[in-house]
UniProtKB/TrEMBL annotation, chains A, B:
GO terms for biological process, alphabetical: polyprenol biosynthetic process
Domain of life: Bacteria
Name of the protein described by the UniProt record: Undecaprenyl diphosphate synthase family protein
InterPro entries cross-referenced by the UniProt entry: UPP_synth-like, UPP_synth-like_sf
Keywords on record: Transferase
Record GO terms (molecular function): ditrans,polycis-polyprenyl diphosphate synthase [(2E,6E)-farnesyl diphosphate specific] activity
PANTHER family: DEHYDRODOLICHYL DIPHOSPHATE SYNTHASE COMPLEX SUBUNIT DHDDS (PTHR10291:SF43), DEHYDRODOLICHYL DIPHOSPHATE SYNTHASE FAMILY MEMBER (PTHR10291)
Family label: Belongs to the UPP synthase family. Z-FPP synthase subfamily.
């Protein structure tokens, strides 16, 4: 089986999941944590070399404050959780903004935790405009230059779009969309995605 | 019904269509021409303001010469065909390369044909690296700065990826994928895509 080297994860649908359970929107985010760790462990076991989680974006941070605080806390908790595993961890996003959580500043350069062995990138207060530096006066490398080409993007929550996720690394990615909300993650989702990916040809535009 | 302003068209599957009919790969491209015109007319009637067709890319141009000549001719024919309609037409791509067809040089600045009224962009010898100018020494606007944000990308041929199609304009696009090969285009494909799009929420990352 041909396993992707790098999987991009768009864990969407937390708020809709919360509403469907009778909770408030803000209460959906923490429910994504255990499944995020489960996904990490599955990927590690399968020999995937790199995972990027779409945490939150500069655009997301304009949502109501109680939601922003909730998804920020979920991201901090998620990064701290992965830091207890064997991983080469990087938090990537605009850390000069006041909405970037200070707790994550120590992670903005890649560091190995435990025995490392899998690159894990967490996009936190990320924005594609920031990444590309389209408004920078002097050309400079992508802010995400330490993030590899993404082979497979998997998005939960039924929407079929990238929503600004790493536009350069995803130019040739295959996209797999799952209707279930992210907190309803099941191992079978990722196995189905990999099975599907295994049958795609890879041309890289050629 | 909420109609997208700008639709991106990835007309994939020409070679597989040709093989399925017992033709040579190179013979698939011309079959995409009449359906491309049909699609243009449908979009115009529906009030869509802009269409971008993914013609061929710098990567595609590395394919065997007989294929390159065939898809280049199909692009030239397609542009000349649209130029007989009412359209504001632009051909966008690296026109300094020797594989860029000279016949299309007059179209590399947007011009109005007939009564105009719909922007039609044709990507010919396009490349996302060229568009973004990532290797340029002085920052400059996108080469595609006259191409608007794409609301909906429709891809024929069963693959679920962008293959380098306008990475900046598609950051928030919704994606609709059709298994049929492009030469098997039917009006119902685009009606189904628009019906689906009508039920998507638009958040632009918010």
């Amino acid at each position: 089986m041909r396993i992707p080297k790098h999987i991009g994860i768009i864990p969407d649908g937390n708020r809709r999941w919360a509403l469907s359970k009778g909770y408030e929107k803000k209460d959906g985010y923490e429910s994504g944590l255990p499944v995020g760790l489960e996904l990490f462990k599955i990927c590690k076991e399968l020999g995937i070399k790199e995972i990027t989680y779409y945490g939150f974006t500069v655009d997301n941070a304009k949502r109501p404050k109680e939601q922003r605080l909730a998804f920020t806390k979920a991201c901090v908790d998620a990064v701290e959780m992965i830091s207890k595993e064997d991983a080469d961890l990087l938090v990537l996003g605009n850390d000069k903004s006041k909405v970037f959580p200070k707790e994550l500043s120590p992670y903005t350069e890649r560091r190995t935790f435990g025995n490392g062995g899998i690159k894990v990138n967490f996009l936190v207060n990320y924005s594609w405009e920031w990444d590309l530096g389209l408004s920078d006066k002097i050309p400079q490398p992508l802010k995400s230059s330490d993030v590899s080409r993404v082979d497979l993007v998997v998005r939960w929550g039924g929407r079929k779009r990238l929503s600004g996720f790493l536009p350069i690394q995803t130019v040739y990615s295959d996209f797999y969309f799952i209707d279930d909300y992210w907190p309803d993650f099941k191992k079978q989702h990722i196995l189905d995605a990999l099975e599907w990916y295994n049958h795609q040809d890879i041309t890289l535009g050629g």
